Known about the structure:
Blueprint: H1 2-12, E1 26-29, E2 35-40, E3 46-54, H2 67-74, H3 84-93, E4 97-102, E5 106-114, H4 118-130, H5 136-153, H6 157-170, H7 183-188, H8 191-201, E6 207-213, H9 217-228, E7 249-254, E8 259-267, H10 276-288, H11 294-301, E9 309-315, E10 320-329, H12 333-350, H13 354-367, H14 375-387, H15 394-403, H16 407-417, E11 424-429
Parallel strand pairs: 2-6, 7-11
Antiparallel strand pairs: 1-2, 3-5, 3-6, 4-5, 8-10, 8-11, 9-10
Helix pairs in contact: 2-8, 4-9, 10-13, 10-16, 11-12, 12-16
Amino acid sequence: xxxxxxxxxxxxxxxxxxxxxxxxxxxxxxxxxxxxxxxxxxxxxxxxxxxxxxxxxxxxxxxxxxxxxxxxxxxxxxxxxxxxxxxxxxxxxxxxxxxxxxxxxxxxxxxxxxxxxxxxxxxxxxxxxxxxxxxxxxxxxxxxxxxxxxxxxxxxxxxxxxxxxxxxxxxxxxxxxxxxxxxxxxxxxxxxxxxxxxxxxxxxxxxxxxxxxxxxxxxxxxxxxxxxxxxxxxxxxxxxxxxxxxxxxxxxxxxxxxxxxxxxxxxxxxxxxxxxxxxxxxxxxxxxxxxxxxxxxxxxxxxxxxxxxxxxxxxxxxxxxxxxxxxxxxxxxxxxxxxxxxxxxxxxxxxxxxxxxxxxxxxxxxxxxxxxxxxxxxxxxxxxxxxxxxxxxxxxxxxxxxxxxxxxxxxxxxxxxxxxxxxxxxxxxxxxxxxxxx
Length: 438
């Protein structure tokens, strides 16, 4: 019986809800006061649960960089009375799926389980969250994996460029440090450091929950208390907001490679800003729209300087950036950098055309429903909406707000957001005709 459900589970992970943005969201509050957003779907006996804990690797102690990342990777390496192998076997026997991930601003937990094994699956997840073992053998094995990733990043021009950009932008703030830590910091981490990272991040005062699937609101409330009620009430204080410290110019990091990588950007816009929708559309036209974007047209289609160039808005909890990336041969990266600067300045000064605005709106609003392609995806969206402070009606109104953006809105926001004189490039490689200016 269980093997049949295992096969069914694989088939339905991404196929429960149709690709549409019309979802009926209920807000559920448990008897113990834990809030979740729920979308019921009883067509298949399967549920997706998404937990988001605000804070993430930015809560690393200054002398313990990488602790939150390592702690998160250890959550599935044994819990309660189960060692790593026992935990893996128990999860497989239940046909459940768990994943644990850390980012700069959050620790996320994803769970997928069948209705018939819901109670057992969530009890196993509860152990991972409340009573992780952090066994010495597992700690050393996962530490080795993290160190291998760090060593690989030290040889990756893109990783070097991003790490250098972050350090220049944020200095000693947590955002200025690699989320994985350094070889030295990770090597020095002890089990006590991992326990401290767990206490700092996995707490109820920073928790957001999204649930989609075969469960009712009445059943979900008590379940939330059983799963999460034993977590600490409070975690560590959040870091302070930070001003972006970049000034316009170029930083060159010498690296032996035939192709240079450039990461560029400057201070951006908070996601709660009333102009964020207009900024999103503006960026789609500038560099977020793939082959239809200004940057791709100028650098790839017209001149063949790169396989890809893009820009994006990067709103974080304590700072915001507008950024981009391009790679080109060492002999052509200077031209690519200059063209990015020219397009940045042109959109800032002149805005965009009516045709560009219409095409961007059509793409953005048309693509949005495609994000709702299964229980897991929708659960992530529900948790993410709460995390970002979006209202429960956001899904219903989002496309209307995009369509309400006018040409004048985009021009005004482009002039406000895009600052050509502040645009800073970090170039990693052996760029010809390009030298550091800061």
